[in-house]
């Protein structure tokens, strides 16, 4: 079964600290993996998109890694800010005739002052 | 702002009523998706269009749900005879695979929050 699992489910950190969110997937065949940030009451916004040949991709203070062999990805947030408080969703695109996206349930991050 | 636009942002309706939501994708995006999201969960696929053709519809979607994209531009999602279990955020997303293929980002609107009382 094609699944995307994320951990932890929720996380609380202090402003300025770093954190790492995990994503494990069993999607096959794999096309690419995406990380999205979703603020409360708003739609998800794309942070990174990685194909199987990319190990690392950065977007400002966000760095995503991908290990296609172990089917694991992580999202590292450096020097967290209050505005980083949001849900972070890992999404895998199935490599098939249809454009089918498999979503994780997200990690809810809370950054405290 | 030329992002994905959804209307209305909030809808409160009584059980049994019909509701219709509208999505205006980014101009010239050929693919359009509808998702449903409940609290603490990731978006759940409902259906998607390539231009005006509805290419896939989730088996989870009952026959009370219908979506259209008549001219390959905006789309509507209608729910007939609403039930309390339909209460959720309904998200629309669009993408264009013309330029970067499968690596194109999926752009989401801010959703329509439906509450069925």
Fold and architecture overview:
The complex is a heterodimer of chains A (113) and B (117). By secondary structure, chain A is mostly beta strands. Chain A has strands at 4-7, 10-14, 19-25, 30-38, 45-51, 56-59, 62-67, 72-77, 86-94, 101-103, 107-112. With 117 residues, chain B is mainly beta. The model of chain B has no long low-confidence stretch (mean pLDDT 92).
Distance between the termini of chain B: 33 Å
Q: Which value, in Å, is the CA radius of gyration of chain B?
A: 14 Å
Sheet having the most strands of chain B: 7 strands, mixed
Distance between the termini of chain A: 41 Å
Mean pLDDT of chain A: 94
Total helix count of chain B? 1
> Ranges of chain A with pLDDT <50 over ≥5 residues?
none
Summed over residues and divided by their number, the pLDDT of chain B gives a mean of 92
Number of strands of chain B: 11
**Portion of residues within helices of chain A:** under 10%
Q: What share of the residues of chain B does DSSP label as strand, in percent? A: over 45%
How many helices of chain A in DSSP terms? 0
- Report the strand count of chain A: 11
Coarse structural class of chain B: mainly beta
Radius of gyration of chain A: 14 Å
Task: Compile the SSE list and pairings.
The complex is a heterodimer of chains A (113) and B (117).
Chain A: E1 4-7, E2 10-14, E3 19-25, E4 30-38, E5 45-51, E6 56-59, E7 62-67, E8 72-77, E9 86-94, E10 101-103, E11 107-112
Parallel strand pairs in A: 2-11
Antiparallel strand pairs in A: 1-3, 3-8, 4-5, 4-9, 6-7, 7-8, 9-10, 9-11
Chain B: E1 5-7, E2 10-13, E3 19-24, E4 31-37, E5 44-50, E6 53-57, E7 65-68, E8 75-79, E9 88-95, H1 97-100, E10 107-108, E11 112-116
Parallel strand pairs in B: 2-11
Antiparallel strand pairs in B: 1-3, 3-8, 4-5, 4-9, 5-6, 7-8, 9-10, 9-11
């Amino acid at each position: 079964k094609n699944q995307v699992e994320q951990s932890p489910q929720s996380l609380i950190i202090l402003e300025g600290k770093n954190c790492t969110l995990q994503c494990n997937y069993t999607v096959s065949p794999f096309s690419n993996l995406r990380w999205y940030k979703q603020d409360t009451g708003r739609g998800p916004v794309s942070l990174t998109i990685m194909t199987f040949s990319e190990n690392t991709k950065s977007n400002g203070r966000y760095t995503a890694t991908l290990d296609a062999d172990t089917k694991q990805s992580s999202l590292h947030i450096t020097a967290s800010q209050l505005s980083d408080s949001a849900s972070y969703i890992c999404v895998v695109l199935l490599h098939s005739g249809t454009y089918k996206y498999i979503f994780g349930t997200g990690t809810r991050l809370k950054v405290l002052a | 702002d030329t992002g994905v636009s959804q209307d209305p942002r909030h809808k409160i309706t009584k059980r049994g009523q019909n509701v219709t939501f509208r999505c205006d994708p980014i101009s010239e995006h050929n693919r359009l998706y509808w998702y449903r999201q409940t609290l603490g969960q990731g978006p759940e696929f409902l259906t998607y269009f390539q231009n005006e053709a509805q290419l896939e519809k989730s088996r989870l979607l009952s026959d009370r749900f219908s979506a259209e994209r008549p001219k390959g531009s905006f789309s509507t999602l209608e729910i007939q005879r609403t039930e309390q279990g339909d209460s959720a955020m309904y998200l629309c997303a669009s993408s264009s695979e013309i330029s970067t293929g499968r690596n194109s980002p999926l752009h989401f609107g801010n959703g329509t929050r439906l509450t069925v009382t």
